[in-house]
Design goal:
Strand order of the largest sheet: 1-2-3-4-5-6-7-8
Structural class: alpha/beta
Helix content: 40-55%
CATH architecture: Alpha-Beta Barrel
Number of helices: 12
Strand content: 15-25%
Largest sheet: 8 strands, parallel, barrel
Mean pLDDT: 97
CATH topology: TIM Barrel
Radius of gyration: 17 Å
Shape: globular
CATH superfamily: Aldolase class I
CATH class: Alpha Beta
Number of domains: 1
Bound molecules: 2-phosphoglycolic acid
Oligomer: single chain
């Protein structure tokens, strides 16, 4: 399966910073055809990034969130139609920072997943346990519960359009470049659990064809070993995706 590496810029970069990044990054990865690359910029720079990406077949545009309705009285929100209109192909949904700081729950995230799929946007659905849950041995229960609720009503054809991001919350850098990622073994264990869940919910073949990507302090130094694990099909990269060179290095480490 082709790997997928997505940049999650979070709330970073002005329009001019986004443009300079893409100009440099395009040159760095122009020969990387064997990987799907996605840049998820803030809403304010999506248009500028879309313009710069025109003609660069291997880099796709993504957003970091959306509302589930098409339009209406939802002050401050952005709809799936608007994301399609601007050229997005992907959208990150259910990121732990949205769950923690904006009270998003699995019920809401499920509505967003369904809305994205209805508009042919590919959801990158984020799940993952926090440190306390991990320490008390609840990781698998947390993952199972999130998957069950967030994927409610999703059929086999739809899950194939999705990507699941396993992001153990305790491994996410929150901007600290020295933050420790999960070990490759811990990450693989989570991915394997998710794969098995997909196999029992859908079937083996379908489960094999859904990309499960890892997020949490992925950087040039550890990308290779993580990406070599059998059930890790790519990465969702925060801090290390803010610099074109380090993001490109991660991609080249595949
Ligand atoms: P990080 O962020 O790479 O900075 O840990 C990943 C994410 O939160 O998606």
């Amino acid at each position: 399966m082709k790997k997928l590496i997505a940049a999650n810029w979070k709330m970073n970069k002005s329009i001019s910073e986004a443009i300079s990044f893409i100009e440099e990054f395009k040159r760095l990865v122009s020969n990387e055809k064997n990987v799907d690359i996605v840049v998820c910029s803030p809403f304010t720079s999506l248009q500028a990034v879309a313009n710069k990406l025109k003609g660069s077949g291997n880099i796709k545009l993504g957003a970091q969130n959306m509302h589930f309705e098409d339009s209406g009285a939802y002050t401050g929100e952005i709809s799936p139609l608007m994301l399609k209109d601007i050229g997005c192909e992907y959208v990150i949904l259910g990121h732990s920072e949205r769950r923690e700081f904006f009270d998003e729950d699995d019920f809401l995230i499920n509505k967003k997943v369904i809305a994205a799929l209805n508009h042919s946007l590919k959801p990158i659905l984020c799940i993952g346990e926090n440190l306390e849950q991990r320490k008390s041995g609840k990781t698998n229960d947390v993952l199972e519960n999130q998957l069950e609720k967030c994927l409610k009503g999703i059929d086999k054809n739809q899950i194939l359009e999705m990507c699941i991001a396993y992001e153990p919350i305790w491994a996410i850098s929150r901007g600290d470049p020295n933050h420790k990622p999960a070990t490759k073994e811990d990450a693989e264990e989570g991915h394997k659990f998710i794969r098995n869940f997909l196999a029992s919910t859908f079937d083996e073949k379908t489960a094999k064809n859904v990309r499960i990507i890892y997020g949490g302090s992925m950087k040039p130094e550890n990308a290779k070993e993580l990406l070599q694990m059998p059930n890790i099909d790519g990465g969702l990269v925060g801090n290390a995706s803010l610099n074109a060179k380090s993001f490109a290095e991660i991609i080249k480490s595949i």
